Amino acid sequence: MEDPKPGTDPAASPGGATTGSSEDEVAIPDTLPVLPVRNTVLFPGLIAPLTIGRPSSRKLLEESLPHSKIIGIFTQKDAATEEPGPEDIYHVGVAARVLKLLRQPDDTLVIVVQALERIAFVRALVVAPFLRAEIRLLKSTTPPADNLEFTATVEELRETALKLVEMTLDPPDQAAAVIRNLRDPGQLADFMAGSLNLPVEQKQPLLEELDVARRVRAVLKHVAAQLEIARIQQKIQKDVTSAITDQQRRAFLREQVRAIQKELGEDDGGVEQQIEELRQRLQAAGPPEPVLQQAERELRRLQHLHPASPEYAVVVSYLETLAELPWNKLTEDNLDLDRAQKILDRDHFDLEKVKRRLIEYLAVRKLNPQGHGPILCFCGPPGVGKTSLGQSIADALGRKFARVSLGGVHDEAEIRGHRRTYIGSMPGRIIQEIRRAGSRNPVLMLDEIDKLGSDFRGDPASALLEVLDPRQNHAFVDHYLDVPFDLSQVMFICTANVMDTVPAPLRDRMEVIELHGYTDREKLEIARRYLVKRQLQEHGLKNGQCRFTQPALRRIIQDYTREAGVRELERQIAAICRHVAARVARGEITSFTVTPQQVETILGPPRYIHETRLTSGRPGVVTGLAWTPTGGEILHIEALAYPGKGNILLTGQIGDVMRESAQAALSLVKSRARQLGIPTDAFKDMDLHIHVPAGAVPKDGPSAGVAMFTAIASLFSNQPVRPDIAMTGEITLRGIVLPIGGLKEKSLAALRAGIRTVIIPKHNEKDLAELPPEVKQQIQFHPVETVDEVLALALKTGRRAAASTPTRTRRKATASPKPAAISSNP
């Protein structure tokens, strides 16, 4: 940020009246780096300090000053713009010479500049990393010396300025001497224009005025107005002083405010009226008695504070916050279960488990309106509809909806608020959202709860423990309010992508509902029912102007997206809609049907290469299954032996857990060497290399043990592994197969890759009931308890174990490529 140095009025400093001709001796180039400044208008001849904090401005100084001390300074039209472009600045500014550069302890820069000449911004040459422009010098026109009217106006300006200096309580040093000694009318006008306390909107026209006569008259008008204000202030001061007696000194400041308001015709009762209005608002809000007592104490303090003091503003803001909170405002719940079911079905496809749980919640509320419901947490990959479910729940209940994004929050005050000892303190996000909702029982969604941080400012996750406990939050105390507020009627809904990063005490307070990724069939239905309609509406297309065929949508899903949710799918549909909208707007077509061939024409070649099953079996190569945040994937685990000293090498950016699985698998194979028909000395003189392809993709997790064991056993026994089979599971040194997570995602990955036989742990057999129907119909699952059963199924020459009970399935599917990061177990 570039502003005048705090506490300094650059135009009023004696150095600001540079009357010499030093600026005439400086050659001003035709192109200059442009420094935008906020709330400051510099006039030629003035010297001013500027504080530099913006990165682009720092870059400008670092690269330009070693070559030239001349820069262009232009004022921003809007001080809030962080990175102004050519259209965000006034096009008349000054060329200035940088006299000094100081580096501050807070890593900002302070430069002292001398304004030289008026310049005009002609055109931008470079925009980044900072603005450089072609400029043009502007010359002022001065009336001839024998123009008596102009001479009289100049002298009137000089006299009025001297009177203003005399009436100023703290005039700048030698200001009167500078005004008397300035002979050039243009310099005198510029000096006074820079000295006046005027907004940018009034100063900028004075800078742009090149006719010295008109400039002098305009400045004279402003100086006269400020002189009149100074006279009125003196009169007010005298009136107040005469009304004060020894018994009234304690009310001095209050009397002065009244006198100012009376002079301006704005006498509206002052502090007493404001206090009375606050008291009435607080009583109308109906807070509990302890809150009213606290508010009354603050109102009594307010009577003894000066309205201009910072503490006065803090107390007023606090009382206004208390008055605006919905202490007794509750929306009536709509407990029509059939209506709620229709709303949930209207907004979301599938998610039957989540919908059933929400209907159960409404049923309990209907039977026990005073009960405290659970804290729900929707956990699942991005894009499956967690956040939008909150709005649907609020619509179904007839409640207000509020959302707090917790991603990246690392300050406890964001939850509990700031204490009122600080200027600018405010309540926490919870209280703020309830105030905006205007109801004490909204549906409040705490989004991305798994991405909370913590640092020296506190731990927001710990601050949420009280908020998310129905037995404690009836008396939640925000640090700013410092009085209890009842949160027990708020329906809190949290969302998270994974629960691993959520602290255990916080996780214990929530009922976690898993939302799994969508199958290709579910994505197709979501696209048909929701996404296509929404994108057609957003792009101004009617149903008849753009129609998506089912094969086209299936092509987009399979070849252009790789996700558990549907966000990328909607983006690809939007890209096609934009293409069609452009052709319709040009009049090239009136209607368009999107086919698989048109998809490739518009979106380009397929973005993802499908990972398919192995075409043939060979020793040491096994297909494993992995879980990722964007869905399941298949992993080809390869093992290779070569002469060595019995060492093991693991590659493919494998994490520590998978390394341990590989070590355990090797040990288990060595212990069963005789049973597997492997010579006992086969490991002594051979090195083992285990590789998981896609080495740039990190992989870790505990469910790759079965696949690694099978790869090593297949390699050393020289028995090929069936190419149409995939497996998942962890192993122990006793050869027991342990359960895994993410079975749905892994089975979907196998289906897409064309694999029809999957080996799973016996303990995961219960999870088969939750798999989509198309998966259970097309994949044959083999639950196993020991690695012996795995080998009997996986090795081509192995004996099928009688203990395995397959589930028959049939269907054709496509594959999905690898994501950016892979974990073999969620």
From TrEMBL:
Record domain Lon N-terminal: where: 32-227
Provide GO CC annotations from the record. Answer: cytoplasm
- Identify this protein by name: Lon protease
Annotated EC = 3.4.21.53
PANTHER family per the UniProt record, alphabetical: ATP DEPENDENT LON PROTEASE FAMILY MEMBER (PTHR10046)
Q: Provide the residue positions that the database annotates as binding ATP.
A: 380-387
| Active-site positions on this chain | 703, 746
Domain Lon proteolytic spans what residues?
Answer: 616-797
GO molecular function (one): ATP hydrolysis activity
Q: What is the lineage of its organism?
A: Bacteria, Pseudomonadati, Verrucomicrobiota, Verrucomicrobiia, Limisphaerales
| Top-level enzyme category | hydrolase
Substrates-to-products reaction catalysed: Hydrolysis of proteins in presence of ATP
Which Pfam families did the record assign?
AAA, Lon_C, Lon_lid, LON_substr_bdg
UniProt gene name:
lon
